[in-house]
Amino acid sequence: MFNAFYDNHMTRAITLAKRGEGFVEPNPMVGCVIAREDRVVGEGWHQRFGGDHAEIEALNDAGDAARGATMFVTLEPCCHHGKTPPCADAVIKAGVKRVVVAQRDPFPQVDGGGLQLLERAGVEVEVGLCEKQARVLNAPYLKLIETGKPWIIAKWAMTLDGKIATNSGDSQWISNAASRSIVHQIRGRVDAIMVGSGTVRADDPTLTARPSGPRTATRVILDSSASLSLNSKLIASVDSAPILVVAATDAPRENVKQLMAKGCEVILCDGDTLTSRLDKLMVELGRRRLNNVLVEGGATLLGTLQDANMLDELHVFIAPKIVGGADAPGPVGGAGLDRLVDARRLMNWTVREVDGDVYVTCRIDR
């Protein structure tokens, strides 16, 4: 039976797990607390990909005090040999009496096996405490395991009247320096940053994190004709972060050769529409275990992703400005919806002020 101590310890484990964001992917973020009633005797989290898992960190912290104690862990302990030995074996060896797990791990080599191993060894196992919070924490990992596709994060900056540029196309800068700093932080923790060729032509971006973060994102450029300028900032910075150009199968071969000679990787995606090519691209990015993909526009790409229900998370910066203009673009293009009742519902809202800008984050409610 769960009690207040249980809730507090699992909440702490989830807080610890969050510290691994950007460092552990494509592994899940996991936190662990070992306690005797209200007294915590050990805690830890998965700190980096290839490093000790949260359970091992917590057991090392607890030492002999783990014997007879209760372990609270946000994800089922593993039971297979990967980059590290099975955590379930270590838990059993340490003499932990009870293991409380927020959620079962759907990874095929675990998927209940860790729980069974613990139970066969006489360890009491309880599952489901704070499961909703744990699933929110590891939604990108769960999506990759369950669908083979990455978690898609859309980011845009717009004026209060919903414009991402003026009617002449001028877009720098809508948001302020503090908001742009947050964007660089997001870039530093994702696996890929995706833009369309129109955004590259208009803004000539570098698409790197400054300062650098725990991850170096692959820059994914959707460019059907492989016409990325050889004089662009992207090409000039090819040694600092990988560039993946996604072209159509009929892209001029000379263009492809020139980009490859400059150090870009070029893949050819077949399909009659951008939507069909994007779907194939998502499968390929998932195969590469690029777990979190940040999409930075523009409106055509974001609209296509929205129409195809591919977006998972939104980061929106609203500047206290009005530009007007019937022809000034909004952030999300595409075909859109005919009925308001069909609009995507959003959840897990956070709203805060950033030096005058309003910063909104949320997720698509599925």
Mean pLDDT: 94
Task: Report Rg.
Answer: 23 Å
Helix content: 25-40%
The number of helices is: 12
- Quote the beta fraction: 15-25%
Shape: elongated
Q: Give me the side-by-side strand order of the main sheet.
A: 10-9-8-7-11-6-12-14-13
Largest sheet entry: 9 strands, mixed
Q: Helix/strand-derived class?
A: alpha/beta
Unreliable segments of 5+ consecutive residues: none
Amino-to-carboxy terminus distance:
30 Å
Number of strand elements: 14
- How do the helices and strands follow one another from N- to C-terminus? HEEHEHEHEHHEHEHEHEHEHEHEEE
Key features of this structure:
nine-stranded mixed sheet; alpha/beta; 366 residues; 30% helix
Short description:
The chain has about 375 residues and is α/β, with parallel strands linked by helices. It has twelve helices and 14 strands.
